[in-house]
Amino acid sequence: MTYTVSHYISGKIVTGGSGFSPIYNPATGEQIGQTELADQIIVESAIAAAQDAFASWSQSSLGRRTAILFKFRELLAAHTDELAQIISREHGKVLSDAAGEVGRGLDVVEYVCGVPSLLKGEFSMQAATGMDVFSFREPIGVCAGITPFNFPVMCPMWMAPVAIACGNTFVLKPAKADPSAALYIAGLWAKAGLPAGVFNVVQGDRHAVAVLDTHPGVKSLSFVGSTPVGKELHDIGVAHGKRVQALCGAKNHGVILADADLDFAAASVVSAAFGAAGERCMALPVAIVVDEIADQFLDLAVQKAKEVKVAVGTDPDADMGAIITRADRDRIEETITDAENSGARIVLDGRGYRPKGYENGFFTGPTIIDQATTDMRCYVEEIFGPVLVVLRVPDLESGIQLIKNNPYGNGAAIFTSSGDAAREFQRAIPVGMIGINVPIPVPVAYHSFGGWQNSFFGESHIYGPEGVKFFTQAKVITQRWPQAAASQAAASQAATFHFAGASSASS
Ligand code: NAD
Q: Which are the contacts of 365, defined by CB distance < 8 A and separation ≥ 6?
């Protein structure tokens, strides 16, 4: 074990808490460090630091905020490679994926570099005689973020830069399996000139989250993680008077119609199912294929999935790295066994795949399960691993019905060359983000990101315009200046007298 990752409060590394949680290198299976778990005192001190900083940060000019955001953007871009190394070491994902997630975070920072435009208010002159009405949005206070293991840079970037740009201060609680990236980011914020206390990090587990959920000093909770945890956090947060956005679990379906470009569809589905080892909420773990082309699609998908190179994340040729923990790898492989025992056909079997030299790492290879049914565990559960479940259906309507019956609603995709079919699909399904011939329809930073149904709890989606709305509250001013109005009236009366006097003198 080589290092301990602690907290970052008011511009300083702070140690202390209730214990430690191991950090593994998933590729080797070795423990490489430990995360210090914040206790109530640590979390409360982070909240207090953020409250202190709010007094001046909320009053900082838009110009000052923008200057810091631009500097932060430059630093983030310049340090992408270091961050990618940190992510890959603790998470296991390949370096290109890790750099890609930094890039997606960067997009959000770039969006809020334009915060002066985003916070422009509205003005109605002369709403009544002598009376104007104008409105603008103000920051809400201390905002908290609770993020998952699978995107240790991107998920915090969905929330903290938006909150900070809007004049709030922030306490981030990252996942305990890969906590180092959050501290690295804290260092970049400090270098960019962000005042101490505006961005704080507490490492920890559910005990730290429980303090953030209930503390009266925390005004909002932005959560990204699994559905049961997100739902509970949402309910507790709302009961404690906070605004909450909880982005949760997923089971995204991709429908492949007979008129699709099958080679393109198979390549897209394979990349979306196995990229990042399937550990992403916008992965495509379910392919709904119409009977007519099911065998053909499956042949292509298996062929392409066999080409996916599974290796240590730092291997430049790797397409897919290790799974986050041994327990998760074992759970994924058990789910495949359960499908096999339930009568599904395992057409590509990743179980037991251990790359040479990394036999103790938490690896499993790509798996494709054909002829699954909706009651099987592999369909019902969010596997969050490199497993593609294939369901065969007679037509588009049956595919749409499957998606409607699924409790999640994060993302979905359709592969077709028919505009009519695509239109019917996008209108019919209860899903927040839809791809048409796009397998991972993650919106750009100037739109907002979020699911429906059990994939999201709250009202405002994250980043983009909805993010700005979430991190601000509206204030409306109705103004009249009676003295000015009276003196204006007096002045115009005097002018009338003068005019009248002038005309009588001349007559
Ligand atoms: P998780 O729910 O286990 O953990 C998420 C965060 O909540 C972590 O910071 C964790 O420490 C904390 N936490 C865990 N248990 C808790 C509890 N009982 N009470 C309070 N806090 C708790 O999720 P994970 O395993 O880290 O991440 C994978 C999940 O995240 C998947 O379900 C995935 O779909 C989801 N995810 C969703 C999105 C999205 O945008 N919808 C994005 C990324 C990941």
A: 308, 310, 349, 350, 351, 353, 386
